[in-house]
Amino acid sequence: MDSHLLTAYNNTSYNVFEPALSIKIGQRNPELDTFLKSMNHKKWAFITACNPFSKIVSDRENEERHHQLKEQIKEYPFFEGEGKGMDTSWKPERSFLILGISETDAVKLGRYFEQNAIVLGSLKEHARLLLV
Description:
seven-stranded antiparallel beta sheet; 31% helix
């Protein structure tokens, strides 16, 4: 993978709108831990369907892909958010925080939606970037 992309992914803020949470790679998030406990879950993933393989596509296509992802995750509790990178020329990507999803299923979703990477975590652990 291109080192610039990897750096961009690692420096992105993975934000959940409600509840207001900001997830950073390599960091623990006590607010997220509290939220997970309140929802009786230990695992989570943060996934987008936008801009497959980090190639910019139209807003319309990203919106369609976002709705397709939403249909795929209906069995899980999920929360809207966005991945917002430091490069302001790149629009934030609509995403979901998905609770209770296994790493295997999260990877399958990431691959299905042609993503280079997804963000994963567990209760009391650091958020991690996983290349898919």
